[in-house]
Amino acid sequence: MRFSSASREKFRSTGNPVMAQDGDVQYERVAEIGGGAYGTVYKARDTESGKFVALKSVRVHTDHEGLPLSTVREVAVLRRLEQFDHPNIVKLMDVCASLRTEQETKVTLVFEHVDQDLKTYLEKAPPPGLPTHRVRDLMHQLLCGLSFLHSHLVLHRDLKPENILVTSRGQVKLADFGLARIYSCTMALTPVVVTLWYRSPEVLLGSSYGTPVDLWSTGCIFAEMFMRKPLFCGESEADQLTKIFSVIGLPSQEEWPNDVTLSRENFSPHNPQPITDHVPELTNEGADLLMKLLTFDPLRRISALSALEHAFC
Amino acid sequence: MTNVDIQNLWERHAARRTYPHLARTRVCRNLFGPVDHEELGCEMQRRLQEISERDQTRWNFNFEDNVPLPGNYEWEEISVSAVPSFYKESVRNGKARTGNAKDAAESNMETGCKNEAQSSFQAPTSSVEVNQENRSGALNAQELVTPVCRRRSGNPEPSRQNTTHITDFFPKRKRSLDTKQTERSSSSIPAEVTPRKRIRCRWEDLGVSHFSDHLAVKKKRPQRNKRSERRVRPSECHRIHLQMSLCVLMGVLGAPKSSV
């Protein structure tokens, strides 16, 4: 996976765009990748405060009009949110843009450095898994961050353990939101398969969506905190939906959205199963919250703010 | 504003000969006299240089070449496997914006993003938004949603008296342009393609002629109230929305791109 993207990068070199013919494959030379070797990240310690920062660079293709307006907007949203200094949002210290070539601008985001994400945190957890009180704390912080984003009309849209950072003190910090458009474009560009495991049914079905998508992802992550493995591991959109329906049951025709091309008849009928069959560690309150998060109808799915008031949290 | 005199027209033609690349890409009104593009470009470069020097000093890091410099911050280059994958470098293709959304999910993403950005910046298009998220406004109706959204979601079909639609301006504006055109045609000056016409040409080239159909429907049957009968598919909604945003943008910037 890493190899394929690294090999692709080798075809990028400095200078004007030249089409290099290599058999049947054509590569467009875009620009040299960052000075450092591919696959490294710069991290620094502030000698005054002792705090760590890390750089995340985003290479943006530009035309004669300069940076795309959408990128400028996204950065503006990130900076605006930063002013609130929310404890559960990763700190953005600075945004630096540098013109690399005529066709490319490098936008470097200076973030606070957190050394692990929820994925590694769960992998490191000793065998019986996280105790319920720890899960409760993580969930509470996650929902706090999410309700903050939602109250500012920002959707995360790609919530997954990889972009939920957990500090050494156990503080949860959401990362990677607001730049969603950058990643939606990246999907088509990189050979890396984008995970579908945390995607909500309405997104998988191509229906209209809003903030409830993040609550679905939260539900999947909540289950994963107990299971220490993903709840629904689909290999394709259809497979992901099948796996979801095998647990929550096939929704009724009335619940099925009108604006989708995929019909309900494509899926075999399933009755909802008790969620504790899949996540036996769940308490009664936990099971109730999980079912409210994994509700098919986005309008009936619990909101971040209501979830914070749930008996489990 | 549409009263462009002969001298101006000639000036514009001259400008096009001087800057052929501009002539092909832009239509603009010369409101503030001639612009020294070279000087402007230099000024921009100088400002950018100043900004990046400031960044470089603040972080003692050369962002252009990705090289750490001596200073307060002790930089180290570490493997991506040692940090959360979130810090990994990513690529954004600006061209992807203009491409047609491949599937519904992708177009959804775009709309979603647009909505976020627009609601946060209170873009002037808010009164004419027909995008997806508006259609199903309840989806985003959280407890803390701003009153603007509440109003929009609660009243998806605002009455024409209260809200001015951008489309209201179209037939009127077109007529005035048409009359101007006939007045002008008597003179010896070559007929110029008006900006509005260019826009329309471009849309039709892009295969989005249904937008003008949409306008035509409104123009011909203004008394028709049951607009909900005309079911607009989500992808169309999205496209119409995009086009309307374009109109507003062009109204603000006054510089549409001509067809390629």
Largest sheet of chain B: 2 strands, antiparallel
Strand order of the largest sheet of chain B: 1-2
* N→C terminal distance of chain A: 38 Å
Task: Say what oligomer this is.
Answer: heterodimer
The CATH architecture term of the largest domain in chain A is Orthogonal Bundle
- Summed up, the domain count of chain A is 2
Greatest chain-chain contact = A-B, 97 and 71 residues
- For the record, what is the CATH homologous superfamily label of the largest domain in chain A? Transferase(Phosphotransferase) domain 1
Uncertain regions spanning at least 5 consecutive residues of chain B: 94-138, 140-161, 173-230, 252-260
With helices defined by DSSP (H or I, 4 residues minimum), what is the helix count of chain A? 10
Share of helix among residues of chain A? 25-40%
Spatial order of the strands in the main sheet of chain A? 3-4-6-5
Q: DSSP strand (E) fraction of chain B?
A: 5-15%
* Helical proportion of chain B, percent range: 40-55%
Mean pLDDT of chain A: 82
Structural class of chain B: mainly alpha
What number is the mean pLDDT of chain B? Answer: 56
- SSE pattern of chain A: HEEEEHEEHHEEHHHHHH
Taken from the alpha-carbon principal axes, the silhouette of chain A is globular
- Measured between the Cα atoms of the first and last residue of chain B, the distance is 27 Å
- Compute the number of strand runs of chain B: 4
Catalytic activity (chain A): L-threonyl-[protein] + ATP = O-phospho-L-threonyl-[protein] + ADP + H(+); L-seryl-[protein] + ATP = O-phospho-L-seryl-[protein] + ADP + H(+)
Pfam families (chain A): Pkinase
Protein name (chain A): Cyclin-dependent kinase 4
Organism (chain A): Silurus meridionalis
